Protein: sphingomyelin phosphodiesterase
Amino acid sequence: MEREPTLRLRVFDLNCWAIRYLSKRRQERVRLIGDTLRRDSFDLVLLQEVWSEQDYSDLMVKLASCYPFSHYFRSGVIGSGLCVFSRFPILDTLLYQYSLNGYPYMLQHGDWFCGKSVGLGSGSRARVGVGVPAPLLSLPLQLHAEYCREKDAYLPHRLVQAWELAQFIRHTSKAADVVLLGGDLNMHPEDVGIRLLRGWTGLRDAFAEAKHFEGCKNGCTLVPDNCFTEKSELLPFPLGIRIDYILYKAISSFTVKCEELKTTTGPAPGVDIPFSDHEAVMATLHIQRQPQAVGDTLGTAELVLADVVAEARTEVGVGLRAAQRQHYSSGRMAVLALLLLLLQAMAALGTLAGLGPDQPFPKLSFCLLAFLALGVLILSTGLHLFHTMEVKMLHGTEDQMWMALRVLQERP
Amino acid sequence: MEREPTLRLRVFDLNCWAIRYLSKRRQERVRLIGDTLRRDSFDLVLLQEVWSEQDYSDLMVKLASCYPFSHYFRSGVIGSGLCVFSRFPILDTLLYQYSLNGYPYMLQHGDWFCGKSVGLGSGSRARVGVGVPAPLLSLPLQLHAEYCREKDAYLPHRLVQAWELAQFIRHTSKAADVVLLGGDLNMHPEDVGIRLLRGWTGLRDAFAEAKHFEGCKNGCTLVPDNCFTEKSELLPFPLGIRIDYILYKAISSFTVKCEELKTTTGPAPGVDIPFSDHEAVMATLHIQRQPQAVGDTLGTAELVLADVVAEARTEVGVGLRAAQRQHYSSGRMAVLALLLLLLQAMAALGTLAGLGPDQPFPKLSFCLLAFLALGVLILSTGLHLFHTMEVKMLHGTEDQMWMALRVLQERP
Structure:
């Protein structure tokens, strides 16, 4: 039997940490990333945290000759920070914004303002000689950051995101031949969110599957050796943590194998700084047509999958109850502020009508108190609306997971 | 050649106008809708504007025997108002919330708070004898309302929604055999948004395709004869308008034909009120397996499609420029308020340090002015952030449309 031709696909993934005014030596690093990408010719580059459109434009101009196709995904107040550069045409794009993404009042964490999303770029392999057109879905993405592992208040939000991401991939990938996902998932390899994502979509982890690996120990991408990382956050993990992934999956009559996986290890060659506070992940994939189509690999471990979905559903339930408590207390606060305002209005009217004692309070404090009550009313109403949405989305995800569990359990 | 068996699918679609405390005779109407649905056995029921979860629960209990499967889509502050009842199992659901949906400060229009979305329910036809499993995607949905046709400020938002909806359908429907979409699109049949949606997805309009039609003239679903409609809004349209649709499409080796389309005409039989301020749309579809698979019907009229996309892109561009102006003016307002606050702070500090004249203003007015400036600062910053998002999403949609135009024009 004649062997089918193989396509060798080199993928580059990096969380660039390019926040204007905040990230250290940003412009220098973006220039360095551009130079490296131009020199080492990858086929597909998935970048995250390119928050400034100017940085994207600069990269686009610099990389136009080797990566003629690119796309920047716009969303949220600041943007999604996601972009793709490709040697092959990008035929279509779609952006899915997660329904939950942290709290607007946690200004120091800022996730809410980013409009974290998954971008979908759909390209065609028709021109690169795999034999037939093999649409490729590539998804750069970033999930909600983890700020404190011991008391991770954002776990339910991250699980909702992981679930929505998995559902998005399941529903959009049906006509693709190969799905490629690269990004900063902000989850350790054994976390429930990663297990959920991999189990529910059938995606494979390039690090676990790679024939050859070269780079930081255990494939870590946030390492204490990197001069930009917060050393204190990594104290419990002396080797670092692995939170950036390249995941892939062949859908129809194709097979994908990870030939090689590399991570950068600190400073780029010839300079004193690394690309970012994260290490880059680079994978070489071999895509080959199979003589016979094989079914979806999902279904081999459905019992394990049901356990993972149940575990995730429990965590989402914990988040739901916390959200319901906050929903209730912000509502109560709004009602109290409203009552105070009404009381003041009545007292003022009473004084005006000459019914009560003259000027029970000094005018200034009375006025200040009214403004304070008004401020509390506005803020707590806003919070109440926000938590209403949060409760709805967590509840909706719990429902969807329940439906998934039922389908998993009913299968013969 | 033996004829393949035909599946007869009866679909019911209605905008229920069931807003708690606001909609007239809501509970009576919801009860009426439930009774009718129980009596006339449809296969699939797509409802919109069921804003109260209690109404959904009541319907679910009442309809459990004839529609054992149902789903309520949760989103936004108030909810999406969307739900599905089905005779056949619902295997999976996904909710896509449009990225733009009106303005939070237009309280009287309220669209922003609804989290308008398209729900996706994916079911299996395996048990109903079409021969093979034929996944069916059914999408209940609602787009942004049109409040003034002459000066329609929401047109760009509705176009972004129509585009996102079309993209969502294109990307999720690949593995389905039949796509069914029912809902209140808030667009007249000849509007650019409808042409865009139909052209870009290949969906067919059940009203235009139906062999037999029975109901309001021209298939109108918002008619002056209905006792709940605002007569003044329909003055330019003495027959009414058609804004509720059932659209469908066969994807792979199936054909769908619309055998019959009906709309309700005013009061339900035996009572004095209609179901809602909208008329219900009921379609009978015949789904049949084709001996040979046919290609996607898209591509027959690509020149026309390119014109429609270009027209929509122009309108989105108009919206983008308006959003940029609002973005700029809210930013300027915030800066002015900040300057005023700073000036006041300097004056107060100066007085305290004994540098300036004593008490240039009475304390109370000084204090009131400061609170006013603070209020303006908070509001205009909020607006500025909102318009930043709006600009990003309009810009992103313009980009996507440009990419679509390029692909359309490059095709041989």
The interface with chain B takes residues 71, 73-77, 79, 90-97, 99, 113, 115, 120, 122, 167-168, 170-172, 174-175, 363-364, 367-368, 371, 385, 388-389, 392-393, 395-396, 399-400, 403-404, 407 of chain A (CB under 8 Å).
